[in-house]
Description:
Helix content is 56%, strand content 2%. The chain is built from 12 helices and 2 strands, in the order ααααααααααβααβ.
Amino acid sequence: MSVNERLYNCEDPAVWRGIYGKYWTVVEAKSASKKGKGAGKLLALDKWFQEELPAAISDRSERSLTHAELAKIMEWKLTKGKFRPRLQQLIGSNSEEEVHSLTSKAFGLLPDVHAAITKLTKLKGVGPATASAVLVVGAPGEIAFMSDEAVESVAELRPVEYTAKHYALYLQKMLQKTSQLNQADDQKDWTPHRVELCLWAWTVANQIQPSLLQEFSLINVADKETNEKPGKRKRSDEKPSKRIKTDRS
């Protein structure tokens, strides 16, 4: 079991709640690690995405996005994950009317997530991953954003495929973990999006600043490598997983 898989396989809600409490600290660390003009950008964009935009949408008589908001969601996605400038260009080629109409119809199709994803992918530059980001800001209690970090935290979901079918499998895993945590946690406030945020924070912190996680022990889900002799220890967790690339995510 790789380091990144250990959180998903952990069943202790106290550990998950502790990781969730570290989310903004990890975002700040990743934001600060960016160089040049990108320094500090992620933190501001993530605050907007996680807090400001959902509040703005909930205040509207009809859930929908403007063209500027969709473009900013893409900027957030590319800043938080892998940068693909072509996607930003494709998003810009959509009209204001197309964005308003298709996002409104997609939100109206929920809780049929597959239908909503299909509707959103009619927009240029929008694949299942970006579509999931759009849906999260309007329905955070139902949807999880398809981040590479969260997907790769589940062994059965590797390699990542940016398809509607793979997103459905991923969301099923997030829903299963949400249900498991709510059964074990007295507060019962877990959502697929919150689970996804924890997996992102766990993975990124292990990549850039493991000391942020030193207080969390996941011995109960540690893999057999910890009991093997150093000379025989497998190094599978050090191999980057392969991703199936597409033009749209």
